[in-house]
Amino acid sequence: MKQILIKAALIITLAILLNLFLYSAIYTRLLPYSWGSNELLDKREFLRRNAAKYNSLFIGSSKTHNQIHPQIFDEKARENGLDIRSYNCGVGGLTPLESLHIYENLLLHDSLSFKYVFIELDWIATIKVENLNSVRSFYWLTPRNYNFSISSILNSTVPIMRSAWGLFHYSLNYGENLMNIGKVHEYFKYKNFVANQKFLPSDSNIMYNGYIPMSHKMNSTEYSLYSEVVGSARLAVRNYPDLVDQHLSQPYLDRLQHIISISKQRGIITFFIVPLQWKYYQYEQLIPIINKIKGARTICLFDIDRYANIYQVDNFADPNHLNEKGAKLYTEEIFNQFLKLYGK
Questions:
Q1: What CATH number belongs to 38-125+200-341?
Q2: Which SUPFAM superfamilies does the protein's record reference (predicted)?
């Protein structure tokens, strides 16, 4: 029995060591940093092919992808004598630390350069149960990104069950990445995707510079969730003076400061855009960080009453996303805030 256990332990150890070798020596070279999402692969390649076309970048989740219209922003810039040619690198479901991973690699790996970058600033997301074990949930979890994720949560004051779930799924997903779960299949998917990659005139990358509008209006059955989003935002604005000096997640702030630093080294001016959040606890985590960020400008757009023209019910596609009409107003307000901060 003892010999069987020893053999089993040796086999498991060898399997782990082999997987770690494959992870560090092979898969990190075969698969690009954006391999977990076809949409990310698409946007990355489009940017690489059109590096000289754009001098500004928006990056974030669907709240960037579907809410910030580069052509409107650029038009407002031209009206004010500014040469801004922006691209929307937002992708639905892109988590905050994942977006920093993508942006950092656009600079360091692809050697892209911009004049301005606008990074959506949200609290660290936790995934839904149905997305557990998906490639998208773990492809970006390098040892460093895993450490940032875990330490940011551990140093936060989020509700205990939310914190526990985050620690669990990030650890599980990180283990899956290290053990190369599904990577042979993903490699062939990636090669097939690249071989058939085309950018047609009707592609959103070409038509809208990466932006995709949401044309529909929110269903009346979603009004209660909309009210929850509005209520959380109003509470955050009301409590803002009390929250600015509350406990903050230092590892998350450190990660943001690192991004600001590498941008500055390349002559890029960093702006953070803070959109509406789902829950009040997200504002509790973000507001102290907003107050401590150094070297970047922050555009806060969660004041429901101040931006009442944007956040009318008819301007929403769902409780947390603006439709095309709302996105136009949202983009114009981002530019207005940018212009106020420009040169400061």
A1: 3.40.50.1110
A2: SGNH hydrolase
